[in-house]
Every structure is written in C-alpha cells, then in structure tokens.
Amino acid sequence: MNDKKLSTEPYKGVRDFYPENMAEQRYMFEVWRLTAEQFGFQEYNASVLEPAELYRHKTSTEIVNEQTYSFTDRGDRAVTLRPEMTPTVARMIAGRRRELSFPVRWYSIPNLFRYERMQRGRLREHWQLNCDIFGIDDVSADVEIILLANEIFKNFGAENGLHYEIHVSSRRLLEALYDSLTLDKEIRLGVTRLADRKNKMEVDEFKRQMQSIAGETTSVILSFLNADNINVVPETIKDTPAYTEILTLINTMTDLDCQLVFDPTIIRGFDYYTGIVFEVMDLDPE
C-alpha cells in the first residue's frame, strides 16, 4: 500500500484557476470576443486532440520533436495535444472549402500546450486569441488584422507608442533578399532560424554564427537585419513587390493613426509564415 499523500499542487507547467482567477480570465476573453466580433469575426473551436501527423507537416521541427505532448492512443494512433491553432483552422477550412463563402473571418480562444522550458510569464499551458482571414490575398487583410490587434489593446486601456509598440516585418521581403544574394535553400533556412534568435543573443556571437552560415553575404544580411527603417534596407530589394507591399502597409497604417515600427528581426519560426509578420512589444520594463 502506498501511503504517500497526493500533492495539492497542479501538474508542473499548468495552473489552477480559482474563482478570482476565472473572473480575470473571463474579463480578458470578453474583451477579445467583443472586439473580434465588432470586426466581423465568427467564433469557432475544436478539440485539443489532433493527429500528430498534422503538426509534422505544418509546424516547425523544433515544436514537433521537442515541445509537443504526444502519445499513442489505444487504437495505436499518434495523438498530440495541440501546441498551436493554425494547423487546426487550416484543416477545418480545407474540410469545408466548397461550402464556405469567402472571405472567411474566424476567431478562437484555444487552450494550447507546449512542453518547453518554463520562464516568467510562460508556462506549458496557455490560452491565446487567434484571428484569421481566409480568401483575401493582398495587404488589406494585414491592415485589418493589425487594426484589430491595436483595437484590443486600446480596449484594455493601453496606448500605442506609450504602453506598447507594433513591430512589423515581411518574410516575403526576407526571401527577396535571399534571391538577390542567390542563397541556396539550406543557407536560407539556417539564416532564418538564426535571425529569429537575434535579439536573444550577444551581438558578437550572433555575427560569428551568421558568418559561419552566410559567408561573404553576411554583411548584406546584417545590414538588412539591423535596419531600423524601411527606407534603409539594401537597395537591391527596393524594386521588389515585397518591398512595395510592406511600404504600403506602413503608410496605410500611419494614415489610419496606427503607428508601426519596421523591425526585420520579426521572423517567426514557423514555415507557414510567408508574408507580413508582426508582434506587439510591451514597453513596460517590468
């Protein structure tokens, strides 16, 4: 007989939500839902269980191999607790593509799980707001999504430029840079993966590793990654559609009183990011 007492602590990396915590979460979710629906988005959801194969095809190898909660069920099927929502919504859209009327605007507040190193404010379970637009293949969709994100923060009482900044870049522009340098696929992948970690590394170490990957093209790549303004990127990519696209985005958002900060280090690690990418940066040092 095992007399060891059961712990009252939750499983490592997740949280218990007592009534006072639920009240805070409910408030946040209500602001998210209200704002998304004001922009014309409809809510959807799905199970936290997905076939592991879905992530092998649609997610970065780091997440699949090192960060997923995966197991084999009693039917000998490989199953994963979803670490992100994008592959799920892509699967759902594909499943109903003949029935849906595009453009489609859907949102969800999924519960997600990643077995990764825990740090302040980042556990192994979290919720996030996903807003997706399907059926619009131009910069207007990016304008709409960024305006939605900005409105959410405003509805929480925050001010753009005072409490947060919206940093924006373009994977398409990065690819245009690679094309101008005639980099092969393996080098492109290595540069992209390293660039995604630039702000987490010491400057000299980052340069050393970039030199080992990119060789004689390192100086041009660094000039792009260090650009603090869209107008100072290398001249070789200023005549590309990707440059025109992000310049249009920045100018349009300025006209709409939503300031953006051009930041080429915003890469995002997933392979399905191919166009405009953005992140909201908290300006509070705490």
Taken as a percent bin, the fraction of beta residues is 15-25%
Q: For the terminal residues, how far apart are their CA atoms? A: 49 Å
Provide a count of the helices.
Answer: 10
Low-confidence stretches are none
Q: Average pLDDT, to the nearest integer?
A: 93
The CATH topology of the largest domain is given as BirA Bifunctional Protein, domain 2
Widest sheet: strand order? 1-5-8
Helix fraction bin: 40-55%
Largest sheet: 3 strands, mixed
Query: Structural class, from secondary structure content?
Result: alpha+beta
Number of domains: 2
Radius of gyration: 21 Å
| CATH level-1 class of the largest domain | Alpha Beta
The CATH H-level superfamily of the largest domain is: Bira Bifunctional Protein, Domain 2
* CATH architecture name of the largest domain: 2-Layer Sandwich
Can you write the helix and strand succession as a string? HEEHHEEHEEEEHEHHHHHEE
What's the β-strand tally? 11
Protein name: Histidine--tRNA ligase
InterPro entries: aa-tRNA-synth_II, aa-tRNA-synth_II/BPL/LPL, HisRS-like_core, HisRS/HisZ
Keywords: Ligase
Pfam families: tRNA-synt_His
Write the layout of secondary structure elements.
Elements: H1 19-38, E1 42-43, E2 49-51, H2 52-58, H3 61-67, E3 69-72, E4 78-81, H4 86-95, E5 104-108, E6 111-113, E7 125-127, E8 130-134, H5 139-155, E9 164-170, H6 171-181, H7 185-195, H8 203-214, H9 218-225, H10 241-255, E10 261-262, E11 276-282
Parallel strand pairs: 1-5, 9-10
Antiparallel strand pairs: 2-4, 3-4, 5-8, 6-7, 9-11
Characteristic key phrases:
aa-tRNA-synth_II, ligase, 3-stranded mixed beta sheet, 3-stranded antiparallel beta sheet, histidine-tRNA ligase activity, 16% strand, HisRS/HisZ, BirA Bifunctional Protein, domain 2, Histidine--tRNA ligase, alpha+beta, 286 residues, 41% helix, 2 domains, 11 strands
